[in-house]
Amino acid sequence: MILKVEDILPHYTIDGNCTLGNNGDISFLFMVEYPEKYSLSEMDFDNIHLERLRFYSMLPPNTVVHLQHFYLNKEFKGFEGDDTFLQKATNRYFKGRKYLEHLSFIYLTRTRLKSLRRNYLNSGIIKSGIIKADLQAIEDFSKSIERAVTFINNSGYFTLTPLCEGDIMNITLNYITGFNGAKLTDIEFRPKFKIGDNYFKMYALNSIDNLPAEIRNITEDRQLSTNEFSYYKSFFESIGLEFEHNHVINQVLYLDEHKEHLKELEDRQKNLEKFAKFSRDNRTGAKLLDEYLDEITSDSSAHLIRSHMNVLTWSKDVSELDYVDNQLISSFQQLGITPYYPTLEDHVYYFLGTIPTNAGIIPRQETFDLDLSKAVCFEITESCLKDDAKGLVFNDRINNLPVVKDVWYEPYESKLISSRNFFIIAPTGGGKSVLLKKISRYFKEDGFTIVIIDLGGGFEVVSKLYPQDTAYIQYSEGVPLGINPFLIRSADELTADKIDTLRDFIFILWKKGQAVEDKERVSLGKIIKDYYAHQDGEYDFYSFFDYIKEDKKILERLEIEPDFFNLKEFLHICSEFYRDGTLDFLLRDQSQNQTIRDKKLIIFELESIRENYQVLPVVLAMIRDTIENVVWKKVGINKMICFEEAAKTLKYPAMFTAIEYYYQTIRKHDGSVGMVLQYINNIPRTDQGNAIIQNTHVLYLLEHDKGYAELQERCNLSDHVMYQLKSVRSNLKSERPYTEFVLVRGKHSNVLRLELPREEYYCYLSEGSEKQRVIDYYNASGNMEEAINKLITEED
Q1: How many Cα neighbours within 13 Å face the side chain of 277?
Q2: d(C-alpha 646, C-alpha 454), whole Å
Q3: Contact of 669 with 676, CB cutoff 8 Å
């Protein structure tokens, strides 16, 4: 039997996403977006099952629901953005990687429109003479579709988007031309099922006998589950994304009247009972059917429908198709399903009946009766990870394919998150530093101003990759940092916040972490204000020290009691930061502020003083002032402040207070604050610490070795997020090494991977001989891109 494609196009006319079929049926067609694989908890699966049942309850009788899933082998073609050194490297590295694309559609069809069907049967085309009852039925059907689609789109799990005429024709032609590039061709059903260059096989579920003994909504994902926790997937998922070959899943639900099916089953049971004496199978069948009828009639929520499912696979190579066929049979067996393999004429009906909007023509004898709640269990629930419009490039967990995830724009605008602040949490050696560099580099290339407080010394290579846009400020003994906390350009810049920041800075120099009394804070505030009112010329620590030292009556003039401000103690202790003092270089040559103003990436590398409890607090306070008085003033530019090895920073009260303030107010400055932590308990259990956690809505959770309970309790994470975290497994010894982590955005979470091209890997090195080789090549050429390329060339 051979058919021509042009002879079986089903659409008589198309208006928007509504079609009038040549067979007289009316259909509405939608694309469906599903939740991403590995993102759903057991409770989510149960909620989805209930939402689907409610959706179907809104559709009128005689509706045919056809769910069609295309799973197509593709190759990654690369991202459009290909401007920078690392963007080009990413495209080269992943280009051509194979993956399975999942496209899903739902076609809602109204059948039994007598006048439309009669017109079709009489002439093959729709003419005038549509009766009033059918017009009313079409209008009612349209309204029901609108209500049902609005409901399911508000569920938070699915999105149904109306298709346009072009989409409908493309989908239809792709299907009936056998995915041969929408070329018009012939369809040959025997001796082999062949369309164009592709050979096909089809399996169907057209009888209760095909179904497993137990039908359930979800099944355990044995690949990820352990003795400690269970991971779940939708029941039919092993025929979905997990079946890594070209295939199409068709599921058709016929929402006929429940009473019609009940009567049909009762008649069938009576017939089996009538002939019970002729066959043991008849006796057994009559008994089982009687028990099922008792179950259905006793359950007021039961809704009997008819259903049909089939799976279509194909290949250009017959031997390869035999292999795919064996894989599919194995997947069915794992689910306890015994599919029907048609070899005569049935597959003709199955194929023609699953052309979009044609499901109403599948013969009744090729369907089976089933309760709706069980039929829904066979529906696909998960899809591949979706690219956001823009964002960070990570990798999916299925095949390490690059995937774009937005942690800044759409999640904030849609209220998925109400702050962009983030934590990166993992034990030592867990990959925190690499992930922070990846994040920072993306946002720098996106036009952000990034400030990194680096106590680990890992940003040297990154800084040299962007020499024009980077200020790399490295602490060295005896070398000024070039930061001037006292610098303002006019009296208007002396705000209350500026005075408060300067007070904290001076108290760090003077009190070195000791408690400060209110009377001292008030007194110092008066002195600072008076200094700016009377000082001519440059504002800096030296002139401030001279101003206090030389004005012998300053306390009396400002009406400050000597007990409220110990002038001699201040001058004595702070003298070590003054000319010829032990630490005078810290506040000398304060010219860096102007340079920093023009930079996109500002890195303070403080590894050499990470354990210096005398100098580090002073430097951190100077950096705080730089952030507040240089970075904050960049209006209309997105900003990010990152504290690498943040546990060290949080030990200093002034910086802890400043970080808490940043977390609460940075939204007003178009920014976010990020901290790299080993464990969540690096953040003290205080009101300040709890406030920081509450204002952090983006988490990057890498593989953990302990601290699960504290992490879940303090960050208010669901059990499913913890299961996701416990399932994280990095593999750094494979041919394509990767690190896994959980990305949490508000209440939404994904398991993602980080796989790097060699160019990016060398860019993110923190230590060791490999980093030194990169630096040596850079020192020889003065160009980091050339240095990395030379290293890779030598390795090849």
Answers
A1: 1
A2: 9
A3: no
Backbone angles phi, psi at 247, to 5 degrees: -165, 160
Q: Taking Cα atoms as reference points, which of 171, 197, 697 lies closest to residue 423?
A: 697
Q: What's the DSSP call for residue 66?
A: E
Instruction: Supply the pTM of this predicted model.
Output: 0.87
Q: Is 239 helix (H, G, I), strand (E, B) or coil?
A: helix
- Using an 8 Å Cβ cutoff, are 293 and 328 in contact? no
Asked whether 527 and 507 are in contact (CB, 8 A), the reply is no
Read off the amino acid at residue 779: N
Do residues 295 and 284 make contact, with C-beta atoms less than 8 angstroms apart?
no
Across the strands, what pairs with 604?
453, 473
Residue 431 above 80 pLDDT? yes
Distance separating alpha carbons of residues 53 and 255, to the nearest angstrom: 12
Residue listed under structure tokens 């669901």: 718
Q: pLDDT tens digit string along 341-380?
A: 987 778 888 999 999 999 988 988 899 888 899 999 999 9
pLDDT tens digits, one per residue of 313-351:
999 999 999 999 999 999 999 999 999 998 777 888 899
* CA–CA separation, 571 and 506 (whole Å): 11
What per-residue string of b and e applies to 597-624 under the rule 16 or more CB within 10 Å gives b? eebbbbbbbbbebbeeeeebbbbbbbbb
**Degrees, nearest 5: CA angle 360-361-366:** 100
The three-state secondary structure class of 430 is coil
Q: Which residue, 696, 702, 687, 695, is CA-closest to 751? A: 702
- Contact criterion met (CB below 8 Å) for 315 and 246: yes
Q: How far apart are CA 785 and CA 386, in angstroms?
A: 31
* Amino acid at position 693, single letter: I
Give the burial class of 733: count Cβ atoms within 10 A of its Cβ; 0-12 exposed, 13-18 middle, 19 or more buried: exposed
Give the DSSP H or E segment for 403. Answer: strand 402-405
Q: What is the DSSP annotation of 478-536? A: TB-----TT--SSGGG--HHHHHHHHHHHHHHHHTT----HHHHHHHHHHHHHHHHH--
Q: How far apart are the first and last CA of the chain?
A: 56
Q: Number of helices (H) and strands (E) in the chain: give both, helices first.
A: 28, 26
